[in-house]
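INFO  loader      accepted 1 record
INFO  loader      residues=125
INFO  predictor   begin
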Amino acid sequence: EVQLQASGGGLVQAGGSLRLSCAASGFTFDDYAIEWFRQAPGKEREGVACITSHDGNAYYAEIAKGRFTMSSDNTENTVYLQMNNLKIEDTAVYYCALAPWEQVCPPEAANYDYWGQGTQVTVSS
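INFO  predictor   done
INFO  writer      dumping tokens
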């Protein structure tokens, strides 16, 4: 059974940093993509950053460019999202999701078959 365990959220002041982790287990796919999504109250879910096992490259949504860095530790099957210079509008529940058998980051959330439970990030003024 594929499981994703997200952690690392919390309360931080604007301008601060957090590092989210997503530990994946129970899968044997040769290729996959893992993406961080977020959803704020009253807003639609949006993609934040994605990384592929195929080449290890990370891809970022505009909201994340220049502030967030996604990385992976393949020995631990864990991906990270380092978030710097956090803004109040970054407040959301952050989810990691895995799309199996993908060598590129899928454009739609529907392509991700496995989801973690989410971790709350709250940025205060």
